[in-house]
Design brief:
The protein has 316 residues and is α/β, with parallel strands linked by helices. The protein contains twelve helices and eleven strands. 47% of the residues are buried.
């Protein structure tokens, strides 16, 4: 009887994959509209709609550094009609920083593909007189907590970047969390906060207009968009806080549907116009297989758990 039931389940999964999709698909972006995760999500959703023959609708569910939207997808029906544009914060860091989260990344999600890697830029409000990382560290040490930095929420890559900077630079800078990248950037532009580790997808226009001042990038390599801008690692050797986004579905989603979604999303990330759009704003398309992405996610969970422990990070 058990064997027969398993066979029926497999047949049902195959049948559903052959006809999938038959209705619109919802892509949950766990941050407000206008932020970097939203930009990547909408870029992919538009192209996936064309390939799948049904609309992929972006649903912004911001809050708790991406936890709210991520949890919602974890508890959704595993039928391929609810996707998550997951982030380093909600997927990897939350495992060690957010003990009250309502999901387990490694148990509750099936990875589809890593969409992009993104290098953030350390930007200052023009009122902060530092012109480089060395000067910023000197100011931070003299003010002893007088400087503050915005993040898109506890556990997000912008929070991690700030805490890693504080730990390696041996400075005290106050963390000010917001409910997404867009409100964090608004706070920086208005002078409500002194600095931020903003996603290059959204901050570059403001750098070019002079509304904020860029002094370094957070990745281990210089940005192709701003090659003259040094890395933080050039002042603090070993520093690296790059972000990434990727697609996930609930864990029990039939494998043929996972394969279809992976195949189509990888095609999207190889499209010249998509590569141009994302690359021009500082995001590097990846397009990994589900197996490759799964291995990557496990390594990220371990990597950031170590920082959370060493830096004694707490959820705000």
């Amino acid at each position: 009887m058990r064997t027969a039931l398993l066979a029926c389940a497999l047949l049902a999964g195959t049948a559903s994959a052959q006809t999938y999709p038959v209705k619109p698909i919802r892509m949950v972006v766990p941050f407000p509209a206008g932020g970097p995760t939203d930009i990547v999500g909408r870029t992919m959703a538009q192209k996936m709609s064309e390939l799948l023959g049904h609309q992929v609708i972006v649903d912004n569910r911001g809050g708790a550094g991406g936890i709210i939207g991520t949890e919602q997808v974890a508890k959704s029906a595993p039928d391929g009609y609810t996707l998550l544009m997951g982030t380093i914060g909600g997927i990897a860091v939350a495992m060690s920083l957010q003990p009250s989260r309502g999901y387990d990344t490694l148990r509750d999600f099936a990875p589809i593909t890593q969409s992009v890697t993104v290098t953030n830029i350390l930007v200052l409000h023009p009122s902060v007189p530092a012109k480089n990382v060395k000067e910023l560290l000197a100011i931070a040490k003299s003010k002893k907590g007088g400087l503050n930095y915005a993040s898109s929420g506890a556990g997000t890559v912008t929070h991690l970047a700030g805490e890693l900077f504080k730990l390696m630079g041996k400075v005290d800078i106050t963390h000010v969390p917001f409910k997404g990248g867009a409100p964090a950037l608004t706070a920086l532009l208005s002078g409500e906060v002194d600095m931020s580790y903003e996603n290059s997808l959204v901050v570059l226009p403001h750098v070019k207009s002079g509304k904020v001042k860029a002094i370094a990038v957070t990745g281990e390599k210089r940005s192709r968009l701003m090659p003259a801008l040094p890395t933080i690692a050039e002042t603090l050797p070993g520093y690296n806080a790059s972000g990434w986004y990727g697609l996930f579905v609930p864990a029990a989603t039939p494998k043929p549907i996972v394969a279809r979604l992976s195949s189509e999303s990888i095609k999207v990330l190889k499209m010249p116009d998509v590569i141009e759009r994302l690359s021009s704003q500082g995001a590097e398309p990846v397009g990994s297989t589900p197996e490759e992405f799964s291995t990557f996610v496990r390594k990220e969970v371990d990597k950031w758990a170590n920082l959370v422990k060493v830096a004694n990070m707490k959820a705000d």
